[in-house]
Each structure stands twice: as C-alpha cells, then as structure tokens.
Amino acid sequence: MSNKLFEHFNTSNQTSPHYERHLNFANPVMAERCEQITLLEPNERCDYATNALSCLQHVYIINYNKYFYCTCDANDLSRIICVLMLISFCCWQFWIIFVTTIKFFVPALQIISKFLKLNEYVAGVTILTLGNNAPVLINTFFGQSSTARHVYTDSMSLNLFESIFTSACIMWATPFAIDGTFFLRDVGFLLLYISYVDFIFKLSGGQIGILRAASMVSVYVIYIMVIVLDQYLQYRKNRMKERLNRESQIGGIEHQVLPPTSNQGRGDLDIANTYHAANRRLLKQFFEAFDVLDRSNFNSKWTVVKVWALIKVPPLIFLRLFNPQMNFHETSFKWSKLLLSIQTTLTPVALVLAYTWETEQNSFMWSGIVFVVCLPISVTVFAYTRTDSVPKWNRYVAVLTIVSCISVIYFVGKELVFGLESLGIILNRSHTVIGCTLYSWGNALSDFMANISLAKKGYPRMAFSACFGVSIFSICTSICIPILYQAINSQTGIVKFTEGTVGETASIILIISLTTLILYGITTNFMLRRTGAIIGITLYVLFLTFSISSEFEFTHAFGTDHILDRSLYNDKYADS
Hints:
This protein is mostly helical. The protein starts with a strand and ends with a helix. The relative contact order is 0.17.
C-alpha cells in the first residue's frame, strides 16, 4: 500500500505536504514506561519523574526517581554519590528485615510450633510457609502489586531462589538426614506444580480459560489435603506408640522405686519471686527494655563503626516498641511488664492504622474501634502480671508478634522493592534482570534469614520443608489465583498471561534443579550433605549467568522466538 500525502495549512506556510505519520507515532502501541526517562534531555527528567504516571507507579513512600533526577543529575560525581546513598539505604532496609526476622519472627514461630506439637516437616510447610508468604497474600488482597513487573518471571525467579539456593545454603550450614517420604512429597509436588503450570501456558498459548486456571489452583488444594492426611496418620502412629508403651509399663510397675517426695509445698518454691511487690522497678524496667545501643561497636576506635551503632538505634527502638518479644532467655532484650501492657493495645491500633491508611479507608475510625476493644485487655494484662517473672500465658502473645513482624516485613519490604526498581531505572537496566536478581533477593531475604536461622537453631528439616512449601504457595497465590480471578471477571472468560523470556528460562532451570535434587536425595539415602549444596548453588549461578548474558544480548533466553533465525541457520549450513 502506497503512502498518501496530506496537506496541512497554517499561517506561516500555506501548503506543507508530508507523509502520513506511522501508526506507532500517532497512537503509541506500547504503554508509557518510566525507563523512558533515560532517553529524555537532562532538563526534562525532573518534571517527568515528578508528574509521569509511569514513574509514580514506582513510588510507595519515597519518590526515589524524583530525588535522583531533581537533585543528583547535575554531574557524574553527584550521580555516583546518590547511587551509593540509594544502595546504602536499601542495605539498611535489608538489615531491618533481617533483625525483625531473627530477633522476633523466628522465636515466635518456634513457640507456636511447640505449642501445636507439630513435627518439623508439617510446621515447615504450614506455619512457616504461611508466615513467610503473608506479604504475598496481603499484596494479592489489596491489589498493590506493581503493574511494571512481569508476574511470572518474578515468581519463578523468586521460587528458584527459595527452593534451590536457600535449601542449598541450609544443607551447607547444617548437613542433616531427612525422611524420604516427606522429602519426595515436598520436592515432588513442587516439580509437579511447576511442570503442570508450564504445560498449561504452553498448551493455551498465553490465553488461559477459567477451567484451566481452576485446575492449576486445584493442585495446591490437593497438596494441602495430602499434608493433612500425613499429619493425621502421624498422629495415629504416635497414639499407638504411646498405648503400647503404657501397656508395657503396667507389667513392671511393681518393681519401680518411687523418688522421695519433698515436704516443701509448690507455693514455697517461688516465694523468692513473689516476695517483692508486683510493680517493683516498673518504670526502670520499662526504660531498660529500650537500651538497644550496641556498646561494643559504639566504643570502637573506628568512627564508621560508631556511626553504625547509632544508626541502628532508631529502628531497634521502633521494633522493640511494636513487636512483643518472645524467648527472653535467648535474646538481649529484657522483660517489661509495662511494655507488654502497652503493646497489647498499641500494636493492634498501629497495624489497623497502617493498613487502613494504605487502602485509603477511614483510618481513625477503625483505629478508635480497635483502641476501645483492646484497652480493657491492656488493663487486665497489667493487673495480672509481675515485673519479676514472665507469665506462662505470654506464649499466646506470639500470635500478635507474628502478625506485627509480618507487617513490618511487608511495609519495609515493599519500600525496598520500589527502591530496587528505581535503582534499576537509574542504572538503565531492564525490569527483567532487576526482577530475577534484586527484586527476588529483596522479597526472599526474610525467608532466607528465617530458614537459615531455624536450621542453625536445630530445625533444619522444618527450614528445608519450608523452602518448597513457600514456593508451592507462592505459585498458587501469585500466578494461579490471580489468573483465575481475572478469567472469572473477564467478559470472554479468557485472560492473556505469558511466561516471558526469562520466566521460561527460570521454569526450565527450576525443573532441571528439582529433578537433580530428587536424584541426589535418592542416591545418598536422603543424607543431605554439602555436596548437594554445591550442586544447588551452581545451578542457581547458572540461572543468573543465563539471565545476565541475555540482558546484555550475549545469549538468547529460552523464551526468545527463534523461528525467524532458522532460515539463517539453514542458509549457513547449505553454504558450508
């Protein structure tokens, strides 16, 4: 079709014929993206970062793009300094997530698992999985996921880090033996789930209907049913063992020698702890709870170490104020009766205020309702606790600690993710490579720290099972459920959803890695040693190598269409 000429008239030039504009320029096919800011003139970037909707989608609390392009874009030196400051701020947020996980979240999970008497495998794929993936659930519920991200690529990259790299680090930190039944169940279900989801995407050609989306969700439902059945069978097995032990002990009870009894009453044993008044040293104990300064670093001769000791104080005070502490004998924090009484009201009110503010609801009304409900609880806690002993019912406060820790990880992690996205825009890197590297690392940091900490504390099987339970849960909540929801709400009952280039690469390497891990477990009789850790870390490094090399166009990703290249290869083969 020949191009047509059109005449446009104006006051300066009566006739100025020119060719019709291409459709791409008249009506842009692709949506505007914040990465286009690097193509603008330096004097236009500040206004674009401040007002463009595509850049405002990368803002949660702080507008990093506006800060950089309005303040630091004058010369190369200021750019380098601001990039280093942004990286340092992201590392500071990493550290906050780390402290929240290690000091508050993990001890609360341990108390809950002990209270419910769950074995390590079940606790890993239930409590720890739900705890680690609560931010994903909150993101899905409130619909706050960034529209700039490719969901499938981010999810598969995150699952590769969680299931392969984190499990490999657990094997390296604490080699252990694992029950083959639970090992094959968790790893096998993840392999089945990824293979089935990848098969559905290939079969549908990126257009998935309601029935196929529901079938993907049903795989996770089957997985939960298998876990419940395993727990029930384990419970029956333990009951049978206890009955056999009682029957065997009845026959020899006449030969048992009973220990001598003490004349001291039970109430006399704790008289030293109940002699003083219940509110003795109340205020002093309260202020000692906020003594979080690291004096070993503060007394260092290096100024940088002293500054770091001071920088840590504000977030530690904040965490100590809003997160009820568990396991006082294992941490540096001290018991405070007054602080716990305040936290039973302050923490729920702060959580409701934060979530209602984010969803633009009536924050003060809901916070006031929660305050009125929780205030009598605080008064009761203050009346029935002492300053010289931790109450036995303090373990029930672990539920509040878990909720507050999840919220801190969610809010800080979300700000961290937007900061990493802005860092990728500033460094002129694509969302793909940012998604499979910095984005995945930022989202998986809390899970990684929690699992490594649990493994070092003597729960390697719980941490190992959680690596795969988290990935199965993540696939369901971040890919399958959103697809089913969009398909149900669409008029045609079909939703367009693609794997992407690096997403398919992550799926294939994840399938290869899980198959290799199963073969390794079978050949070593499920003795998970450091050789398995080396294999897992190597496979994850291979994925990073593929992703980065495809970013710089050294290699092609698995998801790249090579149909047009086949004729070129055939021509070269014929000429040779």
